[in-house]
Amino acid sequence: MEEEKKKKLGSRKRGVSDMFRTSYRTHMDLSGIADNKSNIMISINGIIISIIIASISPKIDSNPWLVIPTSILLLSCMTSMVYSVLSARPRVSKEKVTLEDVRANRANILFFGNFHTMARADYVEGLEELMQDSERLYDNMARDLHGLGVVLAEKYRLLRIAYTIFMFGLILSVLSFIFVFISVSGAY
User: Fold this and answer.
1) pTM above 0.85, yes or no
2) Helices (DSSP H) in the chain: which residue ranges?
3) Could you read off the pLDDT of 78-137 as tens digits, one per residue?
4) Residues 6+ positions from 59 with CB-CB distance below 8 Å
5) What whole-number distance in Å separates Cα of residue 127 and Cα of residue 102?
6) Closest to 136 (Cα-Cα) out of 10, 14, 128, 118
7) Which residue, 79, 81, 74, is CA-closest to 176?
8) pLDDT at position 9, please?
9) What would the pLDDT profile of 145-162 be if each residue is shown by its tens digit?
10) CA contacts within 13 A on the Cβ side of 57
């Protein structure tokens, strides 16, 4: 009977470890995808802005009708780029965490944003204590995953805004170019 309990507990611990490992890997993959999407948006918007400034802005003096569609495109690209940069920007807590905070379970020693301010000896001691208490260890791991999820949600929220601004900015500027082109062509 006692042996069966140990086997169940052993497989349960393995299952819990596998769950945390899989969740961490998924969070890291999603974070990488978000960062890649941010970099793509930054690059695309940077290229569009460079092309507009280099090729269209010198022609605005002789073609004033280009001001509105060009401005719409420039503003939407710039705003989309800002949100993409905000999504990719690193976030680290500036809060000072102590070994006592870790012991009292007020801080998560597994998150680098918390432990980077700790002295190495305190960090090692806190980590060793955490490894001895599986209940606290799992609690810290769960809080760490939650923190990663919160960061991911914010990254994807900012990316969604960047992509939406980019999409509507492109649509609006193309329609504006078409409208202005038809208006100018019809005047001749």
Assistant:
1) no
2) 2-51, 67-88, 99-103, 112-115, 120-132, 134-187
3) 999 999 999 999 877 777 888 888 888 888 888 877 788 889 999 899 999 988 988 888
4) 66
5) 9
6) 128
7) 74
8) 46
9) 998 899 999 999 999 999
10) 10
34's tokens: 């978000």
- Residue/partner pairs of 27-32 with CB below 8 Å, 24 or more apart: 27/145, 27/148, 27/149, 27/152, 30/152, 31/148, 31/151, 31/152, 31/155
Write down the residue that tokens 């905070």 correspond to: 101
> Is residue 180 a contact partner of residue 65, using CB atoms and an 8 Å limit?
yes
- How many Å apart are CA 126 and CA 22, to the nearest integer? 25
Question: Which among 69, 84, 74 has a CA at the least distance from the CA of 179?
Answer: 69
Q: Which two tokens stand for residue 161?
A: 């805004």
From CA 28, how far away is CA 48, in angstroms rounded? 30
Structure-token match 């978000």, residue found: 34
- Tokens 């009292």 -> residue: 104
